[in-house]
Amino acid sequence: MIELNDVGMNYGGGALFDGVTLSLPAGSFHFLTGPSGAGKTTLLKLCYLALRPTSGAVGLFGENASRFDRNAVAIVRRRIGVVHQDCQFLDHLPLAENIALPLTVAGKDPAGATANLDELLTWTGLSHRAGALPPELSGGERQRAALARAVILSPDIVLADEPTGNVDNDMSERLLRLLIELNLLGKTVLMATHDLGLIRRAKAQVAARVLRLRNRSVEVAGVDL
Amino acid sequence: MALILGDGRADRVVPPTGATASLTVFVSAAMAFLAVFALALAFATGRLAERWEGALAQTATLRVSAPEGQVEAQVEAVLRILEQTPGIAASRVMGREEQAALLAPWFGPDLPLDLLPVPRLIEIVEDRDGFDAESLRFRLAGEAPGAVLDDHTRWRRPLVDAAGRLRALGILSLGLIGAAMAAMIALAAGAALSANSQVIEVLRLVGARDDFIARAFVRRFTLRAGLGAAIGSLVGMAAIAALPPAGDATRFLVGLGFRGAEWLWPLVLPLFAAIMAFWATRLAVLRRLRMLE
After folding, report:
1. Using CB atoms, which residue from B16, B198, B203 is nearest to A105?
2. Is residue B215 predicted with pLDDT exceeding 80?
3. How many of the other CB atoms lie within 10 Å of CB of B99?
4. pTM
5. Contact B207 A70 (CB under 8 A)
6. How near does any CA of chain B get to the CA of A204, in Å?
């Protein structure tokens, strides 16, 4: 599903990581951890083609992504749902329209989308906030809304970059459950977090692999986590 | 048609931008207003050049200066030569009163022409084919040595050239106005894009293609430019129509304007403005989008 082959990335004049080789099979659940500044966000950006690697190759859905032009990148992103820590919305549009935004840009039928949207609002517990503008939402509501937006096109991959960074423990658990539910539906999930407690709790519920960014490389964390 | 009706969902993703909207409408209106005057200048100078060229090309003047006693004989010889010259439709000797009227602006109304050695003037009217001036001069030199032919070419050409250059300046002004308008709309579109960089980032994140993003901006700027140009054109046309009517003395100055079907040309300006805005915005947006990521 996602393949990183000998990927290197230079940032600010130095190598952020080098020779990273990684494979995320379909339906897998991975955590990506590491200290601040280790390159978790950069690695995620490489996975959804917001950045291009300095060296090596990124493969997506069996294709070499370096060959993708801007249109191809846009199309492939419809198969990858992304949730950011500082999730961004269009502040002038109500929450429901923000969540439906991927449908809008993909030119999907709004009639069919409405049922999907209602289901997502219910799933994320945001039905009562459908008409609210993004600045009126709490941090937890924003994260859940971002997750709903990320999955409305039923993507094959969900990438979450510190989605629990700005929310309390209860909301972290809630978001984690939503991601686990998505994984149980067959979605490939890669979640960047530095919350080791959250990872330990997740491993009790789902077969997740933990990747650790260390010494400019990625290693699979074992029992020392 | 899709551009005018729009894609409601695509339009909504970009927030309203009051400042750039007003700026674009104002710039388009101002440019269209100027373009109307440039058009009017081009048409007026075109007409002027044609009138000068047409009127002056059909006439010539022959001046007969000779010692007293020989003038009438040479005038008669000249008239005889003119009658025999192909390309000349008519010729006549100007009367004393007509010559006095010509000289009155310089010497006053009481000029004693009988006492002065004023040359006799003969007006020549050409037919459609015109005459061969060089052959006529050659023959006059032999039979009426005091006759000098002035076919107006000498002073007509600079006037026609000047009118032609004025027309070219009018057309150049139209081009410059169009280019300036395109540049300003591209700048305004760039500013709108910069102001909405977060919107674009979100749209790209959720899989929007460049065409989708560009569409929202392009439609807005195209419609605003068309609206502004329509307002500017109508105001410009009203201003032209309000100019005082052209009299003989003020013909050049107030001959600025449109006649007949020429009035339709300013109505085309909004369409041109919209087409220009469409391409200026589209190119600016797509270039900026390529730079963003």
Report:
1. B203
2. yes
3. 17
4. 0.71
5. no
6. 32
